[in-house]
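User: Please write out a complete single-protein record containing the residue sequence and its fold in token form, without commentary.

AI:
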Amino acid sequence: DSVNYLKERFPWVELIENHKNLGFAQGNNVGIKYALEKGADYILILNNDTIVSTSLLRDLLDVVSKDRTIGIAGPKVLYYHKKDRIWFAGGKVSLLLGNTWHIGNRRRDGQKSQNIIEEDYQTGCALLIRRETVNKIGMFDPQYFAYFEDTDLCLRARNNGFRVVCVQDAKIWHKVSGTTGRGLTSKKAYLKAKSGVKFFKKYSPRLFYYTTVPISILGYIILRSVIERLKKKRGIFNAFIKGLRDGRNLISER
């Protein structure tokens, strides 16, 4: 029981108990609202399957506090089990192709050319949000139960004049899928498809949403379904299709 464990081991921590699984977006919104009510100037979103450097907050605040145009910032993320390999050093989005990707993924962490990388989005496993950003654009969209909620938040910030940056000096190590489990399950396939459709329906030009975006998503579905079928996992393809269908039914403000 993680709640009792935290109460016993860290009694000085203010623990908020949700009585059901609210999902990543809405669950974090509970914490963000609480932090703002307590007068916080910055809110750090951090996954529970990460290990942070001792200077993480200092490295992030040294950058953000000196530039008020930065609305969201986050660290470089390395693999926990391969500590010299990059998992995320910035996020990019193609609204025309219906695709997102991590800068530097699987590359060896080495000498950097610059400390601050402009990015389209910062992964939700570790991101620092300025109070003014939340006041202007709001919190995570709770319609994203999981996946794409971070991308949506960052694009809203950018569309409202804020910069989103990845600070290369700031580092954490991520046990990738430590919470949801390794590999592609039917539940993860469903949530990825559902959230992906909602996101690109909201942001992609209509022509591309009905042409290249479905092709991109379908290509990903087929590739992963083949891989999972080879692993003797069934139901992945059906879960993707159901996610696509349910995602189309979500309300999106364009």
Observations:
- The mean pLDDT is 87.
- Residues 147 and 192 are 6 Å apart (CA to CA).
- Residues 2-174 form a domain with the Spore Coat Polysaccharide Biosynthesis Protein SpsA; Chain A fold (CATH 3.90.550.60).
